[in-house]
Amino acid sequence: MKATHNPPTTAPVTPADLLRMAALYLRRHGWSQGDYYTIIFDALTPRACVSGAVAMAAYGTATDFPFGVDRPERADFRAALGVLRDFLDLGCTSRLFGWNDKPGRTATEVINALTAAADRWDSLHTQEGRNR
Predict the structure, then answer these.
(1) Reduced to 3 states, what is the DSSP secondary structure of residue 8?
(2) Distance CA 78, CA 45 (A)
(3) Which of 63, 36, 60, 61 is nearest to 47 (CA)?
(4) How far apart are CA 101 and CA 81, in angstroms?
(5) DSSP state, residue 3
(6) E-only strand ranges, the chain
(7) Which element (helix H / strand E) includes 121?
(8) Strand bridging mode 126-127 / 47-48
(9) Which tens digit of pLDDT belongs to each residue from 34-52?
(10) Given 27, 74, 75, 128, which residue has the most CB atoms within 10 angstroms?
């Protein structure tokens, strides 16, 4: 390697990474239904629905409409939600709202689904900790 060569300092974020970060976000800050975020006193870390939690993991901040954010991370956000949607066999991403907001749904179910979808993605795309 030449002295002027600058190797990458970070690995690319995978959909599984974002789904696990979203699950952790919900464990730490709480889950909600009916809107992306439940903002109380302008909290920096509001309770979030499943899509809001993935958005917090991708963007690092609450956004009014995560699907329309004009930032490079939007592709990662959409990819992670696509993996979750496929895992739940919902057909289209907009059905995640109904799944999240279903009466009787629990935070534990949402967190477990995020984690299981991440595990499934890893099992299909990595081998012994490396990308296939």
Answers:
(1) coil
(2) 21
(3) 36
(4) 16
(5) T
(6) 37-38, 47-48, 126-127, 130-131
(7) helix 107-125
(8) unpaired
(9) 999 997 766 789 999 999 9
(10) 74
